[in-house]
Amino acid sequence: MTTSPSVRRLLNVTAAGFCLVWIFPVYWMVSTAFKPYGDILRTTPHFLPFPLSLGNFADAVGKPGFLTDLGNSLLVTASVVLLAVVVAFLAAVALTRFRFAGRRTFLITVLVLQMVPLPALVIPLFLGLRSAHLLDSLFGLALTYVAIVLPFTIWTLRGFLHGIPVELEEAAMVDGAGRMTVVRRILLPLVAPGVIATSVFAFITAWNDYLFADVLMKDQGHQTLPVWLVSFSTATGTDYGGLIAASTLSALPVVVFFMVIQRRLVAGMTAGAVKD
Amino acid sequence: MTTTTRSPRPSAARTRAAARPTRRARRPRREPRALPYLLLLPATAVLALVLGYPLTRLGVISFQDYGLRALFTGQVGWAGLANYRAIADDPQLVPVLLRTAGFCAALVAGTLGVGLAVALMMVRLGPAMRRAVTFCLIASWAMPPVAGTLVWQWLFEPVYGVVNWALTQTGLFGDLSQHDWTSSPLSAFALVWLLVVWQSVPFVALTLYAGLSQIPRSYYEAAALDGAGPWRTFRVITLPFLRPILALVTILSVIWDFNVFTQIWILTQGGPNQGTTTLGIWSFTKAFSSDSFGQGAAVAVVSVLLLFGITVVYVRRLVRSGEEL
């Protein structure tokens, strides 16, 4: 697009202003986390976290429950990503490589399920898992997340599989490859971007959720990191140093993850939903 | 598909592939076999168990007298329409509905407005500046909602928060050094609005930017030759090209913003004086604070129906456009 120098300068200034505003909360979180304790509660804030201090992190990690709940979060998230991708991949193969009665119905059901407001499910899930004695069970929680992410993961993987020409698989079978070999050597590598996109989605859903974890996991020691964070903030009132350091720790895996895969992120998010 | 045949004869497969004229005309072959159903089984089981069953159960509970007694004895009586009648008679109903709709509309408008502006800005920026904007968007996108909300609490902390300090420094709003943002419904909503917009703009902006960058440059050159101004170019070229993606991010924003729960719950718990209680919060507090699961379920049913009503138009259009579904 052709732009005159004055317009370009105006654009750059606007962009810089936008960047400052948008990054500031993240900067403020990291900077607060690294400040020495006495520098946090200041009526005139210090903008640079010098001298650097790791005291807040030590404080957060040392609090009861942090390591257990971090472990729970990791365990649940890893199971959700693995289960959701495998289950959705199988479903997507069925939906794109076979034609069978009920196929359309299944697809429309998935599409409609994607529109269900999740907070509405909290009550029946709580009562249902309660009578099945699956409250406070990491397995029950993980299963809940798998169901929450499935509509999106099926829809997205279906979009990716749809774009892979079936001729490739046929050619491989002509050359004598078995069905599993075709899946392993042809489908999986080609659908890798889709698997990444859906993994990201499953990862952030399970890692970030607060509502379901809060309601379904009542026992201390069975909670996940977001619930731990919120209880930390209400229990200690104003210990912002430890709280913000713990928030930084919980954000760290996601931020790193997003930065690494940022190129594929948008493509993957939209590929399944927008028709080619 | 040959993948469904156990041992395809090479020659037959080859001729079939050769006979296929174009990719569009390709149709999976109808084969009444168990394999596709087997592949769908795990997904169906999980969806039925964790989404289908609770959804049905939600409807059932909304007609039941499900309170503390039922929770402990396991004896649940039918309530007929009593839960719905109780909600309809509740003076909170109309304010909650209006609040939910208004807040959702404000969030969608804010997110789409800022997101579209940022996307339009990004296509006009140089590579270095564009990378900087992308970096900032990804950073805020990646922030977990709970962590983001707690950071918000800290940013807007009445005495030590950096926002009150900065606003006081500008001298435009008087002394805000003690100002509690959650003390009035309007400023509490503003607090949540800023947070949710900050969290949702990245997805919208990056998606719209991806759409914008696919519009062929030659269209704009032609428009410039014809002497079209920027507004006309936007209306005649940019907007029609962007429409499907714009529709997608709009409907997703409506769904997400209608369901905003965590941010409101942590920042205000629906207060002050229920001034920030939306449908989701209302249902939640009815069930888990007043132990009236029946009424909570009834409110939830109302929200499910409302959202379905909003999205059904979009889904129908998508289903109709997708012949190859």
From TrEMBL, chain A:
Transmembrane segments: 12-30, 74-94, 106-126, 138-157, 186-207, 240-261
Topology in membrane: Multi-pass membrane protein
Biological processes per GO annotation: transmembrane transport
Gene Ontology cellular component annotations, sorted alphabetically: plasma membrane
Domain ABC transmembrane type-1: 70-261
Keywords: Cell membrane, Membrane, Transmembrane, Transmembrane helix, Transport
Any one Pfam family match given in the protein's UniProt record, by short name: BPD_transp_1
Location of the protein in the cell: Cell membrane
Domain of life (superkingdom): Bacteria
Cited InterPro entries: BP-dep_ABC_trans_perm, MetI-like, MetI-like_sf
PANTHER family: INNER MEMBRANE ABC TRANSPORTER PERMEASE PROTEIN YCJP (PTHR32243:SF18), MALTOSE TRANSPORT SYSTEM PERMEASE-RELATED (PTHR32243)
Family, as annotated: Belongs to the binding-protein-dependent transport system permease family.
Protein name as annotated: N,N'-diacetylchitobiose transport system permease protein
Native source organism of the sequence: Streptacidiphilus jiangxiensis
Automatic annotation (TrEMBL), chain B:
Organism for this UniProt entry: Streptacidiphilus jiangxiensis
Location within or outside the cell: Cell membrane
Any Gene Ontology biological process: transmembrane transport
Protein name (record): N,N'-diacetylchitobiose transport system permease protein
Domain ABC transmembrane type-1: 97-314
CDD domains in alphabetical order: TM_PBP2
One of the Pfam families matching this protein, by short name: BPD_transp_1
Region spans: Disordered: 1-29
GO cellular component, one term: plasma membrane
UniProt similarity note: Belongs to the binding-protein-dependent transport system permease family.
Biased composition (Low complexity): 1-20
Transmembrane regions: 34-55, 100-123, 135-155, 186-212, 233-256, 293-315
Source taxonomy: Bacteria, Bacillati, Actinomycetota, Actinomycetes, Kitasatosporales
Membrane topology: Multi-pass membrane protein
Entry keyword set: Cell membrane, Membrane, Transmembrane, Transmembrane helix, Transport
